[in-house]
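so my prof wants the structure for this chain in the tokens format not the other one, which i didnt know existed until like an hour ago. anyway here's the sequence
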Amino acid sequence: MRHTGLFAGIVLPGLAAATVALVPPTATTTVALTGTALYLGGTGHPLTVPADTTDYIRGYIDWANYNFVAPSQLCPWCTAVGVYGPEQFWPITGLRDMSYDASVAIGLDNLDACLRGKPCTVTDPPYTSSGARVLTDSSYTVFSYSQSGAIAGLEKSDLIAHPPSGTVNFVFVSNPGRPNGGILERFVGAYVPILDVTFTGATVTNSPQPTPLTTVDAVHQYDPVADFPTNPLNLLSLVNSLLGFAYEHPEGHSGAPLLQGQYQDSTYYLIQTDTLPLLRPLTIVPFLGSLLATTMDPPLRVLVETGYNRTINPGAPTTAKYLYFPNPIKTACNFLAAIPNGWDNGIAYITGNPGNRPFHTTPAGPYGVGGPPVYAGAIDPYGPPTPLPEPGTATAAPLGTKAAAAVTVSRTGIETSPAAPGGRGPAVPARALRPSSAPTRSPTASAARSASVPGPASAVRATRSSPAR
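here's what i got, hopefully its the right format
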């Protein structure tokens, strides 16, 4: 079941407020052959039993590992551990649940305890029970998704201020603190008092060398949590992005990651959206709907992209720009050029031949006809980027193209079980996932979310201040 908390509780209040990696700098210090991968869940999923079922936790960690953590090669032989965070969002997840800020603060305390050798609440394999214990590893990779991205981002700031004794890396997916695109940075400084939501700003990228907090950040195009429009007043871009929550907020889904840029210790990837969320409802109509969607996508994408400034590095903190609009003459030319591009798409679809393009147009890139390249460059990079391979292929592709992985994974699940990417990791168990509809909760999930979870008694950490950049 796809969670809705961050959309309803952060995206919409953010609009109201508007109106009021992979860098392996030194392999010996940032990449460990053994270690522990700490997985945090999204809104509504604390990754503890019985709040989440064993099947759900296993499936979620499988998805995160095979599509993001293992391909990053930051933690190729890591033990996978689920880490508790309340992941609550009153009133979205329940009328008795805690507020967003309170949930983030408790999750932050628990993650910090795990990384600093203090008792913390975790769910160990085979994910049948949860409890408090002390983790004693010297190398950790933290995976976060959606709401837990706010937790991981704040923890990264704290680790910079108070360095850990070992190595810590981060893998973000749908990060609300993504510097250019994350909802928490678009409206940084805003606070919604009734819902207790603080927009805490961008995830920092300036960890110190020679032992940086190496970070990879992946986003699905048009995911409103992490790829929110630069100009929220561009209504076409805004509506497309909000619809993107239903199609591009990626729990259980993967795609072909494209290198989008580097910024200090972080490397950023974009997973292209083949069909605009605005047009996806058409595809439920047999044949004709998909034909219309593929034909209309190129010209409509040109207009949708006018709400984004894709030339800004994804690691550069970028707040909402209410007066932003690209060159109107160039936009008009791109729109006209995109019309025959759409015709070629339709003809190729009808004939079933991708090369049948009688108007001799080239399929447009992620940002549409005339759009800028996906790769926005590198700003003060700590080292070369490490490719994040594409699920479903067997060899690495050049940077900036559709990368590859040794695991065979499709958008609909894990299909085979060869060795992990690059031969550096363990064999992947062939366990089926249900990504189109994430594993369901146990019948007691709602009640369990509000129940106390075993773990250290720690005070709620204040989050109403933006992390240092």
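also thought this was worth mentioning. The chain has one domain: 5-279+309-327+373-450.
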